[in-house]
Amino acid sequence: MSEHSTPRTLSEHSTPRTLSERSTPRTLSERSETKRLRVAMIGHGFMGAAHSVGWRQAPRMFDLPATVEMAVLVGRNADAVSAAAAKWGWAESATDWRDVIARDDIDVVDIVTPGDSHAEIAIAALAAGKHVLCEKPLANTVAEAEAMADAATRAAGRGVRAMVGFTYRRVPAVTLLRDLIAEGVIGTVQQVRAAYRQDWLVDPQMPLAWRLQKEHAGSGALGDIGAHIIDMTQFVTGLAVESVSGTMDTIVKERPLQGAGSGLSGTAAEGVGQVTVDDVAIFTGRLAGGALASFEATRFATGRKNALTIEVSGDKGSLAFDLEDLNSLQLYDRTAPADRQGFTRILVTESQHPYVSAWWPAGHMLGYEHGFSHQVVDLVTAIAEGADPHPTFDEGLSVQRVLDAVERSSENGSAWVRVAVDAAASV
Ligand code: SOE
């Protein structure tokens, strides 16, 4: 088994309640160096805005074991990145990421670019001794993800850490969902139903964007939003997806081209371009231990704007989460007296709930952006503790292998495909 083999259960990867359980203690002098983390972020689109909010809010609302400095924002267009840096609170802006990761006054590199640049940037940054946070999915291919996971393993030996940005794990209700399953509240996991539905592509006149070109995005709905529900399923259950059967479809096969700035390959001012990724991915997964999971990732669920749902059923009950009601968790307790069984709504805003005590009193809700602050909290804490932040690049690789298996299944008449657990098995 290679060092990246995914265990039958992901318990080794589940984030422990305290990071010290996983700390690989570093020398006092090494740890004193982590008292100050100067961050460079590469990219400044939607995720650039969300990550910037996290880097600004986390140090102001949590007692972090290191100071965080928003040092440099990097983008290709000097005027655009300078304006974004001023707006979001980055001290400098730059246009050459290679120059920035070579600087001695940068400690962390946050990658929020399209997937086709994740591998090159992350591997270079890790080699330069920078801790890395990389947006999901980890890469556009399994080969790239394996190279990134290898680089992260080597870097960890030098005390350099790497994390993947699956932020929905850090919605308090999702962390609570994981904790309750781990405590056995619903018994043995028997079934998972997970969906991520959006509708921003239903209009056929929506111009071609980089997310619709395989060379930039790797895949469409499958990798962009399907990755979230695969990671969430593995995170909350602690069980690896071991085999899949899937179907992918492109509903609108060509779209109008936009001018420069759309991030397209061979940008043209007019005409139409081919959509080379999936609009919809529907697949079934067999989890370690035998539970069955159903997954739907679509950008054509008319009326659904950002609807991520997951329901986990066991022999003692069920737990359900809906991103559109992200401060709540639904619990059905089958062991309750028969005359009072029913789904109860847990309002996940109490101080004992994950992350909540740093924010507001009970009943004062959190939002989509808070997960990005929680991501910063866990990354900075792990770096200071000398521990691997979760999800690791290995966990990102396990998601990438599921994505790859779904694509291979869809190309082969939805035949069941085993998810590779090491390089040899992925050919
Ligand atoms: C677009 O589908 C997108 O921004 C994804 O890329 C994010 O990961 C998701 O959280 C919201 O939608």
If helices are DSSP runs of H or I spanning 4 or more residues, what is the number of helices? 11
Chemical compounds bound to the protein: alpha-L-sorbopyranose
As a percent range, the share of strand residues is 15-25%
Strand order of the largest sheet: 16-15-14-13-7-12-11-8-17
Overall pLDDT level: 91
Taking the alpha carbons of the first and last residues, their distance comes to 15 Å
User: What overall geometry do the principal axes of the alpha carbons give?
Assistant: globular
What is the number of E strands?
A: 17
Low-pLDDT residue intervals, each spanning 5 or more residues:
1-8, 11-26, 28-32
* Element order: H for helix, E for strand: HEHEHEHEHEHEHEHHEEEEEEEEEHHE
C-alpha Rg (nearest Å): 21 Å
How would you describe the overall organization of this protein?
- By secondary structure, the chain is of the alpha/beta class.
- Helix content is 30%, strand content 23%.
- It has eleven helices and 17 strands.
- A nine-stranded mixed beta sheet has the order 16-15-14-13-7-12-11-8-17.
- Helix 5 (118-127) packs parallel to helix 6 (142-156).
- The longest helix has 19 residues, at 393-411.
- It is globular and about 65 Å long.
- The relative contact order is 0.18.
- Residues 1-8, 11-26 and 28-32 have low confidence and may be disordered.
- Alpha-L-sorbopyranose binds at residues 46, 198, 224-225, 306.
